[in-house]
């Protein structure tokens, strides 16, 4: 099963969620692959991959076999990316089947329970490639007014993909991230989405926690870096809820 972690807004916890939901599931014995579709390359970097042997661009260009690109960190397989993915996106603009390039690669890979794709903060061709090959979309979102505006855009993009490239796609849910439960606004926005959108809202919420922001500088998931932190327990709780839903 493949899950795209999507939000075209920057800094909504996509990369942090990809890594730590993946790690929580790995600890439960699941076989996990994490794919970075963001030219920023933060996913691999946050797991200590500073100089990848190969990247997702090499796979898409057909310039390297998967065995040259896969890395393993914390028991999870990783397909890293780097800035070359931005050039690739440009070169694909006029190419045939440009929306299916990631799908062609992932369809060849067997044996994973869950594949998570970390998307860039845009609804560009790279995100479209992720959506074309996914069963589900997970949307990490800050409970802020401006997030609501972004939600309509994600919704219409997903509808378009469902009607054209991938009829199998559905939204797994919205994950409230960096939620301060003492702030009334967070609760109001949560309720607004619940009442006005047809999406599942995860009951699990990810609290703001300094350990989550420190972990990438140590090249570790927060589960490994600080197992007793709020972030670790929030993501482990999320993995329980995830397994119940899927
Ligand atoms: N629960 C949290 N508490 C505090 N800081 C967090 C938390 N989750 C993530 N962060 C920090 O917030 C920043 C943004 O998180 P992250 O990189 O996961 O977002 P993103 O959506 O992947 O960003 P981008 O859109 O740039 O890819 C990072 O510095 C990260 O370490
Ligand atoms: Mg990111």
> Alpha-carbon distance between the termini?
9 Å
Cα radius of gyration in angstroms? 17 Å
Return the CATH topology: Rossmann fold
**Number of discrete helical segments:** 12
Write a structural description.
- This protein has 246 residues and is of the alpha/beta class.
- It has one domain: Rossmann fold, CATH 3.40.50.
- Helices cover 45% and strands 15% of the residues.
- It has a seven-stranded mixed sheet, sandwiched between helices.
- Helix 1 (14-27) crosses helix 12 (230-245).
- The relative contact order is 0.19.
- Magnesium ion is lined by residues 14-15, 38, 42, 118.
Topology:
Elements: E1 2-5, H1 14-27, E2 32-36, H2 42-46, H3 56-61, H4 66-69, E3 71-73, E4 76-79, H5 84-92, H6 101-106, E5 114-118, H7 125-132, E6 136-142, H8 145-164, E7 170-177, H9 184-196, H10 210-214, H11 222-225, H12 230-245
The structure holds adenosine-5'-triphosphate (ATP) and magnesium ion.
Quick overview of this protein structure:
The chain has 246 residues and is an alpha/beta fold.
Relevant terms:
246 residues; binds magnesium ion; binds adenosine-5'-triphosphate; 12 helices; seven-stranded mixed β-sheet; globular; single chain; alpha/beta
